[in-house]
Amino acid sequence: MRVNTGQVIETATSLVQGMRHRPEAVVPAIVLGIVGLGFYAFISIADEMAEGEIRAVDERLFLALRNPANPSDPLGPPWLEEAALEITSLGGYALIVLAVAAVTGLLLITRRYGPALYAVLSVGSGALLSSFSKNFYGRPRPDLVDHLDMVHTASFPSGHAMVTTVAYLTLAALVIRFFDDLRVRLYVAGVAIFISAIVGLTRVYLGVHWPSDVAAGWALGAAWASLTWLFVALLQFLRHHSVRRRSE
After folding, report:
1. Which of left, alpha, beta for 22 (phi over 0: left; psi -120 to 50: alpha)?
2. Which among 162, 185, 161 has a CA at the least distance from the CA of 172?
3. Which among 26, 114, 120, 126 is most buried, taking Cβ atoms within 10 Å?
4. Hey, is 80 helix, strand or coil?
């Protein structure tokens, strides 16, 4: 029996007849998936941490970055430790506040008040969520080695990993909106992800966080940054349709 390929394709495409093709809807769907996956990953890690089932894995990964003969000594030459201290400062509140303030100031000068408010609210709410999570879980810092960076708060989740992820993804989302070139968009997003990743790794390398702290910070940070982006996208969608309805 010979199958008419053209007729099969025509029949299949008739099933979506009348539906509008909206490629712009793909991005919100992907971001929504990141929100769900991020919150799920965070809750899963938190449950494992609370039950103590992740301790062995944490210790194994933690010590993998240390000299087996002397766990207090991180792997690599002395300059690598200095570099880690400088890189980890990218996730410090002082530098993040300066970065957000600089970008917000530029947006205010150019009268982009909405994006400026979005940047402040996204990063500010992310920092508050990080602080609340730390107080809620109250996990002690790693006690296997001396800390190579000064710390004052609880360990879970990593505030550096979370707030860095929220801040740099938020700033990347703002920058991306000013460029149509896909290569530029991918580059900006890639830089934001790279900075978030390397800052998180330095927290383990410097002995101030368990790997699960950092993983949880990345997950919650990505979820929160994506959630605030979705909220803004929804407001833009409602405003666009409201304006178009009034003009009709």
Report:
1. beta
2. 185
3. 126
4. helix
Q: What share of the chain is helix, strand, coil (3-state, %, to 5)?
A: 75, 5, 25
Whether 70 is in a domain gets the answer: yes
The alpha carbon of residue 129 and the mean position of all alpha carbons in its chain are separated, in whole angstroms, by: 13
Place of tokens 């000299």: 67
For 72, the 3-state DSSP assignment is strand
Phi/psi-derived region of residue 178, left when phi > 0, alpha when psi is between -120 and 50, beta in every other case: alpha
pLDDT in tens, 128-182: 999 999 999 989 999 888 888 888 888 899 999 999 999 999 999 888 888 888 8
pLDDT exceeds cutoff 60 at 2? no
Paired strand residues for 66: 74
**Count of domains in the chain?**
1
Q: Indicate which CATH number applies to the domain containing 187.
A: 1.20.144
Q: At what angle do helices 159-176 and 93-109 cross, to 10 degrees?
A: 20
Closest CA to 228 of 160, 173, 191: 173
Q: Are 204 and 6 in contact (CB under 8 A)?
A: no
Query: Residue 18: its pLDDT value, please?
Result: 43
In a domain, 13, yes or no: no
Integer Cα distance of 61 and 210 in angstroms? 8
* Residue written as token pair 């990218």: 90
- What is the C-alpha separation between 59 and 14, in angstroms, rounded? 57
Q: Which domain holds residue 75?
A: 25-247
* Residue 186 in domain: yes
CA 6 to chain centre: 46
How far is 66 from 68, CA to CA, in rounded Å?
6
Say if 5 falls within a structural domain. Answer: no
A 10 A CB-CB count for 104 gives 20
